[in-house]
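Side project, low priority. Logging it here so it doesn't get lost.
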Amino acid sequence: MNRFCLMVSLVVSLLITNQQTFGAVANTEFPKFIISCDTLPENQILYNGRVWRNLYTAVEEDQFLFSHEFLVGSVTMRGRTYPNVLIKYDIYKDEILIPFKPAGILQLNKEMVDSFSILFHNREYRFVRISDSTDADMNGYFNEVYCGKTRLIARYVKKIEKLADGGKYDKFYQINKIYIATDEKFRTITGKKDLLRIFSNEKEPVRDYINKNKILIKREDAESYVPVLRFIDSLQKEGMF
C-alpha cells in the first residue's frame, strides 16, 4: 500500500470512529474524499467518490432499487466501462454505491458517471445520467426502457412516509415516473390516455392494436408501454403517418 492509500485509510478510520462515537445526524453531509487506491491506473477512475454510511437505519424497508444486497452490474465513467461491478442503487438519494476497502461502501462521484447497468432476475437494466436538462426533475439517473424512434425512460424514486407520530416507524415507499421523448422533448406519461394524446396522429391504429392484442398498460409499469411504442415506430417507419 502506497503512502496515499495509507493516508486515506487513516482518514477513513478516523471518520468512521467519530461517527460511531457521536452518532449520525440525518442531514449530515460528509466531506468528500477522492479515493483512488487501486494500483491499476485503469481502475483509479472507478474508485472515485466519498465514504457512504446509512443514515436511515431507523426507517422501515430500505432506500434501494430491487434489493438491499449488492447486485452485479457495470459502470461507465468518462467513457470507460467497468464490467462485473457490485452495485447498490440508492433511489432515495439517486446515488450508486460500490463496496470498497477499507471504507466499506463508496458513493461514486456522480459527475463522472455516464451510465450503469444492474442485473436482476436474469435481466439487465440500463441507466443513463441526464445532466443538461433545464428541468431539475429531469437530471439524474434514468432507466432507458426503450430506445427506437421514440424513447421511453423511467425514474424510480423512494420517499419516506412519516409515521412516527402514531407510534410507528417511518417507512420508505417507491414511486415510478415514466417519460416519453419525441422530438428531443420529454413528456410525462401516466397511462393509455396520455399515450394516445401524445401520438394523436396515430390514435386510431394504436387504439385498435392495443384492443386487438389485449395489451394492458399499467400506470407505473414502463415495460407495459414497450409493445405499443414498437408498433408506433413501425407505422412511422413505413411512412403511414
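Brief comment: Helices lie at 3-22, 192-198, 203-212, 226-237.
Revisit when time allows.
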